Amino acid sequence: MFTPIIDSLFIFSIITPIIGFFTPKKSSCLICGAVSAGGYIISMAYLLHILPQILTSPIRIPMETSAVSTSIVIDVPGSLMSLLALALGLFATIYSMRFMERDSGTPLYYSLLMAMVTGIVGASYSGDLFTLFIFWELMCITSYVLVGFRRNVKESVEAAIKYMLMSGVGSATILFGMSLLYGLTGTLNLPRIALSLKAGGEPWLYASLGMLITGFGIKAAIVPLHVWVPDAYAAAPSPISAIIAGASTELAVFVICKLLFFIFPVIKVSWMEFFSVFAVLNMVLGNIVGLLQNDVKRMLAYSSVAHIGYIFIGIAAGTKLGLTASLLHMFNHGLMKALAFLCMGAIIYRIGSRNLEDMAGIGRRMPITSTAFTIAVLGLIGMPPLNGFISKLLLFMSCLDSGMLWLGILLIIFSAVSTGYYIRILKALIAAPRDERLSDVKEAPILILIPICCLAFLMILLGIWPDPILRFAEESSSWLMEVGRYA
Amino acid sequence: MLADVAQFALIASTIAFALLSIEVKNLFHAVIFFALMCISIGAIFWMLNAPYLAVFQLAIYAGAVVALLLATVILTVGKEREMK
Amino acid sequence: MPSFSAYLACAIILYIIGLYCLVTKRNLIRLVMGVEILINAAHINFIAFSAYWVPGFIDPLARSIVIVSIGLAGCFGAVLLSFTVYAYRHYGTLDVRRMRELRG
């Protein structure tokens, strides 16, 4: 059918509930989790196997162009995004084997999670807008069900409804924007649209661009459209929050990058200014409202909004260095935010509350989790030995490079402002416990600790030795900026 | 000539039914107008040389989605209450 | 055949009607209908563009996109409506402005 990367995910997402039907209720969570983890491992192994081949020339499926000319193109930028999604999916599955044991219907949970990761992988590999739309909708619809998975809890249902309404409008707007592009050029194949749009800046091009950015921007948490983010991230189960914050939002930003640099370089000057405005709005709102939160997951959600602002700085710069910095920060932020949400989930698993005051002094009781949480928070602030520092440094350098010094200064100022609320988390972890409530809290179980430790190790590794991922991001950005290499 | 008038009438009726379906106070009537709007969109597709598509539209939209909407209205609000 | 702008205007007016419904109405079921109206507007746009590009012939690409999108919109409506039923059981009302447990 498609490549083994997407095929194995599809097959395992169908096998898992069938196996779950035959296992006894008590151990169905563990067995189904193990089966679906196997799917992720097979997919990632194949991706790493064909990675050297992709660096020279992308693989096109189907091989020859047909009348309808839809295609999946396995290329370098898509591999960056799908590697992130597969890794986070694997970690979330191993994590859920212990975290979701008290919920009912877990075989279907694993199947939906795998379908969501399939959607993310397929959308990042899409060669034209039709395939992108299909996989995008697959990701969206499964994520609606996953956010509202605990349907007996009031706030899950409310968060899911708000998320669905806004994201549904986003999907409809994307479809309308695609229809305008189809009307202008007669095709939906991305390189062909780029080649046939060389001349002209008619008003319908602007309308189509506006609609596409609005539609994808609802998922990417651009500022006036970000209102679903705190509710959905807070009310979803923690592994789902980790995947949505770490992969789904990043995919939306990646698709915006791809569309902007492929299709719309004709009107380059206009959108660079727009994106600097979006970047500033995101940074301001994310950091300042984050200072007012007491619920840690909402705080992390607003910090996500702020980091999307940093990523947009790199896009607004418009140069190759800017795009490299954006892609690198996308990858790093996905890892850091997922680690933060998984650690918070481990704490919620033990104490049952999301509030900052209830967490005070938990560092002495759960040492490994708190160390990993500290690593995640330091990475988000941008401390040197971790990977967050490298991507923020590259973002600042790209601002200097393209002459937008004021954006770089705002980046540094708002990173400092964000330290205000990250320090509150660190203070809650290392303070002395207030009373005897936390006396019977033990360390998190081993299946929850494995993904947390792996992610923390990856963060430190990418901080000390950034060379491979930096070369990967540079190759991706050089492919993204030249459409001609695809046609 | 007749085809022209029919197409203009279908476009006008689509817009009219859409407006009616969101403005009417009774929920049941709103769903019925939504179904009529979907049927007229299906007729537009037929007149634009896409009969296969018209059948799909009628089957899924005016069939499944309207049935789900009616089921939801019955399960939640019932007959006697009128909501805005 | 009426001129092409008639269909384009119809799609844009339907889109605006859908957005108006989502912004001003409070009942959840009406909001679901608003999103479906939005999606239908995009479908009309696709088929209208494809019908006037080459007279008398619909591009198979446009037809396949609309068929897939009709199916996906049906899925979306089903998920949204099942969550509506759960919300009614929790809150006792379908009014969106009264569902405000999560604040800040």
Describe the structure.
The complex is a heterotrimer of chains A (487), B (84) and C (104). With 487 residues, chain A is mainly alpha-helical. Chain A is built from 18 helices and 2 strands. Chain A has a two-stranded antiparallel sheet. The longest helix of chain B has 26 residues, at 51-76. In chain B, helix 1 runs antiparallel to helix 2 and helix 2 (27-47) runs antiparallel to helix 3. Chain B has 84 residues and is mainly alpha-helical. Chain B is built from 3 helices and no strands. Chain C contains 3 helices and no strands. The longest helix of chain C is centred in the C-terminal third of the chain and has 32 residues, at 60-91. In chain C, 76% of the residues lie in helices and 0% in strands. Chain C has helices at 4-24, 28-53, 60-91. Chain C is mainly α and 104 residues long. In chain C, helix 1 runs antiparallel to helix 2 (28-53). Chains in contact: A-C, B-C. At the A-C interface, helix 5, helix 6 and helix 9 of A face helix 1, helix 2 and helix 3 of C.
The residue fraction in helices of chain C comes out at over 70%
How far apart the termini of chain C lie comes to 54 Å
Quaternary structure annotation: heterotrimer
Mean pLDDT of chain A: 88
Main sheet of chain A? Answer: 2 strands, antiparallel
Strand-pairing-aware structural class of chain C: mainly alpha
- Which residue ranges of chain C are poorly predicted, with pLDDT under 50 across at least 5 consecutive positions? none
Q: Tell me the major beta sheet of chain C.
A: none
What are the low-pLDDT stretches of chain A, counting only 5+ consecutive residues below 50? none
Beta-sheet strand percentage of chain A? Answer: under 5%
Instruction: Give the strand tally of chain A.
Output: 2
Strand content of chain C: under 5%
- Count of discrete structural domains of chain A: 1
Total helix count of chain C?
Answer: 3
Quote the average pLDDT of chain C.
89
User: SSE order of chain C, as H and E?
Assistant: HHH
Number of helices, where a helix is a run of at least 4 consecutive DSSP H or I residues of chain A? 18
Element-level helix/strand string of chain A: HHEEHHHHHHHHHHHHHHHH
**Gap between N and C termini of chain A, in Å?**
23 Å
Q: Looking at the structure, what is the overall shape of chain A?
A: globular
Structural class of chain A: mainly alpha
